[in-house]
Every structure is written in structure tokens, then in C-alpha cells.
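Annex B, item 7. Sequence and C-alpha cells for protein A, then protein B.
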Amino acid sequence: MTEQDSRNLKNVMVVMLWDKTLTDEERAFIDTLRKRLDIEADEFQRLVAEVQADPKRLSIPKGPEGVDALGLLIEAAAADGEICDTEKKMLGKVAAFVGIEPGRLEQMFPDTPASLQQQFEITAAIEELYANFHQWDAATRTAKCCAIAAFGRPAAILLLQVMESYRTPDNETNSLELKILIAEQLGKLADTRAIYYLVQQISIGDSDDEMTSADQRAACAEAIAAIVGESFGQGSEAVQAARLWWQKTGHNQFNQLAM
């Protein structure tokens, strides 16, 4: 156990009391976290007493430790199944303190799973893409991809699966145009879960074959720029800028699988 561990557990208890209630799920979360942080019973009781004496006091450091602490607070706020408006407001203040933009904070919140109906509708729309892509004009192709992206975050993972797939649209020799359109929509969705996979598309080589088309790499790089709010330029310039960004800072934040 470290001093930071004690602060983290104390912060979590403060967060859980923001709505003035403590559910069974929240109590279980606190107990699990206490054990995970190897905090003994006597230390835990001391922290409980401090929270009871000053139930609104948070202790959040600056820098990477502060971002980690924020992540733990978000996990704690969601322990009862939802993050209420009061919790979101307070988390927003913590995020501002540690330097996290509001849009980035929203991306850190746990996902609300897509309903079975949404999954069915998104999957059906993707199957329609594969079946009819060859006979649609450019405007229709774009409109159909936009319609899938209009489902929001529930569509992101399914679109990424299209990006990762070797499958081609019916009666088409490759899937390059489809994947370029998908990359554009992923950029507009601004879902950070897509970054790791988009980076793989710009990192797999420079030959102009089906899997590493220059146009596809550029579309993926420009999508990354849109998601992270950077200016990478266009075309090959964007690809080089995205690769450099990933090497310097990106992989530390987004080097994780989401599917």
C-alpha cells in the first residue's frame, strides 16, 4: 500500500457519497478496491473517519497520476450502473483540474451497451453495404455509410470490424473504397477506441496493394487527426504525421484493444 493508494480509496468514497447514498454495488466496489490496493482494515477505518469528517474533500494530483485517479473515480461513479448528472458535473471539475477536455472525458465514461435492436439494425445496414455497394453511385455509398455512423458509438466497433475484415463487397475485387468511407465515418464519430486499429492501417507498410493502399492509409491518418483534434495535413503528409504522433505520445494513451 502506498500513500497514493490511500488517497485513491478515500477519493472513491467521497465520489460515492456525492449523491448522498451508498448502494450495495458501491459498497462491494469499495471492498474490492480496498483489497486490490492491499489496504488493511485499520487503515480503511481511518480513511472512513476522514471522509465522514470532510465528505466533499478530494485529493487529486496533477500529471499522469491525476489522470489515473480520474479514471478510478469514473469507475467508482459508474459502480451502481449509471453516472448521474451530479457525478458528471463533479467529474468534469476534476477533469478540468488534471487537464482533460470535456469531450475526452465523455470518451472515458463506460459504454452503454447497444440494445439488441440497435445491433440488429447496424448489422443489417452493413450487410446491405456489402450486398449493394457495387451498384450504388458515390453519393449513395457515402449516404449509406453516414446512416450507419448516425447510430453513434454503438456503431463504432462494428465499423472497425469492417475495417479489419478481408471481406470484399459483392462483385467487387477489393474493399478499398468501402474502407476509405468507413475511415471517414470513424473520424466523424470521434470514438477513441478506433485509434489503435486506425494506427494499424497506417503502420503495415508502404506498398500499394489491397491492404496498404496509399489512399486508405491517408483516410485512416486523417480520421485519427479528427478524433484527437490534431492537424496532420492530408495524404502522405497526414500518414507521416500520424505515425510520428503515435510514436511520440499516442501509443502511451491509446495502445489498447477495444474489440
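Protein B:
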Amino acid sequence: MAMVKADGYGHGMVECARVFADCGAAAFGVAELVEGIELRRAGFEQPIFILAGVLPEFFDALFEYGLTPVLVDATLIPALAREAVLRRKEIAVHVKMDAGMGRQGFLPAELGDIVAAIKSREGLRLQGIMAHFPMADNPDPAGSKRILADFLRAVAGLRPDIHQDLCLHIANSGGLFSVDGTSLDMVRPGISLYGYGAAGAGDVSATAEPQLIPAMQFVSRVIQVREVPAGTGLGYGHIFTTGRTTRLAVLPVGYEDGYLRVLSNRARVLLHGRSAPVVGRISMNLTLVDVTDINAVRVGDEAVLLGSQGRETITADEIGGWMETISYEVLCLFGHCNRIEYVD
């Protein structure tokens, strides 16, 4: 199951799904029903899982587009079964077990009753049971190994009430790379499909073979080059004052584009294959870069905010460190806030 929720982690859901389908993806995972509808309208015929749950008012679309709901509590079971019977259809469902995430799903002790409730309802067919690793971003797999054991123990306790070909799945990117035995019947890679490890810059999966290669670059162009004397305050609040005569490259990028204010005086940008610091407060539409030591910078030059130029690279993990967040958020911000071009 290729995870393409959140507009493909900022990379473009439909375009990424096409690539993953060409590479053999057997199913797609999205968070919300509207994402599943978009995939169906784009022509995808693979199973599409709605992982965050659905509300009764969305049942029409659920059946119309042939989407697979993941049941996260018992409240929908009677209503969904009635809807299926009214339509003279059977709908396949997966149930989510809360194996330690504490967010959604049935507790292990509740799983038997839920399975029985689904089996007793005409119109419903239990197709799978899933769980999620709450510590997949931790390179130490010990916690995830315990979660896997708890999940398998809970499922084993349901025998012989469940059929042998039930689809079991728990592995996200972190589990897939870090914990032996998590593949089960299906895996749900997400961040790794876009070239990053779940545990950030220290993730062993980011350096293991085959190497994960980031898919996204965030590129702009220099809109102005200017020189200011020593002692010049830069940007709102003058949080940076020049200590020397300084050449500045002005980029038409700001927090409107997902390049957040917290990157002020922290981030770096690549110009002419060299790394240069962001100086002063990042504003809504403009960012200043100190290019005093890169004499060749001119208006129109490419500026790489995320990605590679020459031998230098800035990763989403690195930007996540400057922003005090993770690569997932960086990729979603940049992808959602900017025009995307695809290069084969």
C-alpha cells in the first residue's frame, strides 16, 4: 500500500500514485475520503484505503467510488451494514487495533467483540486488521518489536474466529526498514517513498543500500542583488545587523511559500554550488541571503532552498532541524505552498 495522503506528502498525490502504480503498488492509502475520490476520478482501480475513518454522511461516496473504510471504533458498524444491505452490496472493511499509538483504534481486549460484531452483520466482510507503530521514528527498534508482538498476539487470540487469508498489516516506513518480521501480508511505506527515513537524518535506512534519494527540490531565482554598508539592520525587527559591507541576494520566497519565519538567521541556501546564510527576518514574500563571499551571484541565478546544487545538498531533515520539526512537515509545507514541476 503506497501512502499518498496529504497530497503525496506534498509531492502531488495523483502524479505520485501514477509512478507508484507503474512500480507495482497494489493499493493506496489516504487519510480522507475526498482524497480517495480524487484518485478514483483520476482512473486508479487499485484498492484505496481511507485510514482516518469516515462519517455516515459520506457513505454514498464510499459505495459509489468503491473505497475501503478502516473502522476505528464500533459506532459505524450497524449503520454501515444497513447501508450495504440497502444497496444489496457487501463492503470489505479493515479494522484498526490500537497497539500503543493511543490515537485511534480498538484496544486489544476489544478486538474479539469487534470481529464478532462485523461477522454478525450482513453486508460487511472483514478483510483485514491493521495497527500502527507509535515509535517508528526511533532508530532503536525495541519498542516497535514489542508493538509487533502485541499485535500478533492479539490477532492469534482471535483464531479460529477469523479466516486464514485475513490481511494483516502494521509496517510503515520505519517499521519496514528497522524491525524484522513486520512485512506480514502488506506494508504501508510513506516517507521512504519520497526519499527520506522515518527517523530523520540519523535513520540507518537513509544510508543503507539501496539508498533513499529525495524526490523534492525547492528552487527559486535571485530577484535582486544589492550591497549595504556595515551596521545596516536587515528586515523586520532588525534581528540581524551587518558587520561588514555586505552583498545581499533577495529571493522572492517567504512564509507564504512555506519558508517559515523560524528559518530567519538559521537557514542556508545554495547559490553557484555554495552554501550561503539566510540573514534577517524572513517576511511574507522575501528572503535575504548573504552572498558577500560568492561574487558571481547575479539577478536570475538559481537559488536552491531544498535539494542539491553542485556538490552541496540541503535536505528536508536539515531544514527540519532549523525549523525544530521533521522532514514530513517540511515537505508538506513546500509542496502545498508552491507550484510543482515534474521531471522524469
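Comment on protein B: The CA atoms of residues 223 and 299 lie 5 Å apart.
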